[in-house]
Amino acid sequence: MGLRDRVTETVDGKRFQRAIIGVIVVNAIALGCETSPTLVAAHGGLLSAVDRVAMTVFVLELSARLYAHRLAFFRDPWNVFDFAVVAISLVPAAGPLSVVRSLRILRALRLVAMVPSMRRVVSALVKSIPGLLSLTGLLLLLLYVGGVVAINLFRPSGDDRFADLGSTVLTLFQITTGDGWSDVMRDLMRDQPLAWVFFVCYLLVGTFTMLNLFIAVVCSAMDSDAPPPAPDHLVLSEVQALREEVRALRLQPVGPAERGSAN
């Protein structure tokens, strides 16, 4: 086995990947601790050392994977994602590029690339984008239609939230998220007692239906991306037993009586 084969076997092994996941978690915790002035004042040197060690490990890991897989490394989108995250972390965080320093926390997103279950969820979200775009267009249409109706119904009340189309659409979007819709409704019901009819109808269509459709599209994409179910072990054992019986029958010697009947 050559050196490249040994490196490939190492970087693709489960132990190596678990070790990298551990480094990612420790580095993410250290970066979170750096947001606390108290912890930085007490353990700033240790946190910086952890960050440098983690960055060194990430660079060595990517170098080993590039050496093992060569150009095939860039054929996997997750490898490209890992490479981009580490490359951003290597940009000097000085002068006008000081904002890049805050992007070091992106290393924590490497957990998505390292953990298969997380990768499946993200892949399902990406696959559901076409359906989500259609639902987003439908939701925007609903907001526009509802905004035109609401502004004609509630602008005479003098409420600033329904003064123009922009404010009305923003208010309806707030209602769609379920934030304070009952307060808006009760304020309008002081002058228009039947205002609740509009809000109930809009909530039924905009919130309970549309948002559930978003969830349904994502769940459908996740189901389609799920691995096929494992075959039943009992069925496999029965098939194996039948194969053994057929093989035994084929190997069984033929007697004289059977030869005579065959003739």
Tell me what you see in this structure.
- The protein is mostly helical and 263 residues long.
- It has two domains: 3-114, Four Helix Bundle (Hemerythrin (Met), subunit A) (Up-down Bundle), CATH 1.20.120.350; 129-225, Helix Hairpins (Orthogonal Bundle).
- The protein contains twelve helices and no strands.
- The radius of gyration is 31 Å and the shape is flat.
Average per-residue pLDDT, rounded, comes to 81
Distance between the termini: 59 Å
Backbone shape: flat
CATH class of the largest domain: Mainly Alpha
The proportion of strand residues reads under 5%
Number of strands: 0
Summarize this, please?
This protein has 263 residues and is mainly α. It is 75% helix and 0% strand.
Which helices and strands, and how do they pair?
Layout: H1 3-11, H2 14-33, H3 37-69, H4 77-90, H5 110-114, H6 116-127, H7 129-154, H8 165-176, H9 181-189, H10 195-225, H11 233-251, H12 256-262
Helix pairs in contact: 1-3, 2-3, 3-4, 6-10, 7-8, 7-10
Key structural traits:
263 residues, mainly alpha, Four Helix Bundle (Hemerythrin (Met), subunit A), Helix Hairpins, 12 helices, flat
